Amino acid sequence: MTAAAQIYIGCHLSVTAGYEAMGKTMLSFGGNTFAFFTRNPRGGKSKDLLPGDAAGLLALLERERFGKLVAHGSYTMNLCAANLQTRENGLDMLGKDLDRMEQLPGNFYNFHPGAHTGKGMEAGIQLIADALNRYLKPEMKTTVLLETMAGKGTEVGGRFEQLREIIDRVELREKVGVCLDTCHVWDAGYDLVHDLDGVLTEFDRVIGLDRLYAVHFNDSKNDRGSHKDRHEKLGEGKLGLEAMKRIALHPALSGRTKNGLIVCLPVGKLPQAV
Ligand SMILES: [Zn+2]
Ligand SMILES: [Zn+2]
After folding, report:
1. Which ligand is nearest to the CA of 146?
2. How big is the chain by its Cα radius of gyration, in Å?
């Protein structure tokens, strides 16, 4: 496999035992990347990254030729909430998370763009771009990934156009990419089962496949367009095993980025099927 066609595969791991420990766990699973929450996904509390632990993980990543890691921001971080306190809490989390990411330089920081909770899509998009313009710095080594969303409630990011709008309004847009969640995209209404080519062509037209750095490989409990965002075990949901396989093997996904594509599976061991 050439570097241009590299796919790195890993799953979500818990940070409880530390950072280097996650690297060792992923090695034992046979993967070569992983995702983790930068802080408690629902509560927002973060785990300290001690310098020795960071150095240990960085050495492991280099030695074992891991792909980039995908850190995931808290679900409670909402950069475009109508409530000012919620929005400020989100900004505080973003700033601190991005600071911490610089201790693991060169990796991805992926987050849910937010929900405008009544302010309107246009205002939501602007607030998210404002937050990125505030915290992205030219010297930063981290690439921020906006996640495609199911369009649940007032979520921003259920349409590719909304992500494109955010990126267009960010000054340091070379530091911004996209993480495609297969469950979310399906729930948002894009037909990954019957028209995978069409969806990827649409992604390329609106956002550009060169901005796609990671795929969250999730099946969905609900029908296309349900806007629910409820994940199902791989192959057991409405996307199904055949469609998931076609996505995993699609040449547009495996052959197009110099950094390789990161595929994140749900929590747990890597299934043999993928
Ligand atoms: Zn996510
Ligand atoms: Zn989800």
Report:
1. 1
2. 17
Determine the distance separating the centroid of ligand 2 and the alpha carbon of 68, expressed in angstroms.
Answer: 21
Cβ burial 182-204 (10 Å sphere, 16+ → b, else e): bbbbbbbbbebbeebeebbeebb
CA of 180 to the centre of ligand 1 (A): 9
E strands, 100-240, are: 108-111, 143-147, 176-181, 212-216, 219-220, 231-232
Between the CA of 110 and the centroid of ligand 1 the distance, in Å, is 7
Ligand 2 centre and the CA of 67: distance in Å?
A: 23
Distance 112 CA to ligand 2 centre (A): 9
Q: Spell out the per-residue pLDDT of the chain, length 274, in tens.
A: 444 446 788 888 999 999 999 999 999 999 999 999 988 878 777 878 899 999 999 999 999 999 999 999 999 999 999 999 999 999 999 999 999 999 999 999 999 999 999 999 999 999 999 999 999 999 999 999 999 999 999 999 999 999 999 999 999 999 999 999 999 999 999 999 999 999 999 999 999 999 999 999 899 999 999 999 999 988 899 999 999 989 988 888 875 544 556 777 766 545 443 3
C-alpha 198 to ligand 1 mean position (Å): 23
Distance 150 CA to ligand 1 centre (A): 10
Residues 3-265, CATH architecture: Alpha-Beta Barrel (3.20)
How many angstroms is it from 230 CA to the middle of ligand 2?
A: 6
The predicted model scores a pTM of: 0.93
- DSSP assignment letter at 114: -
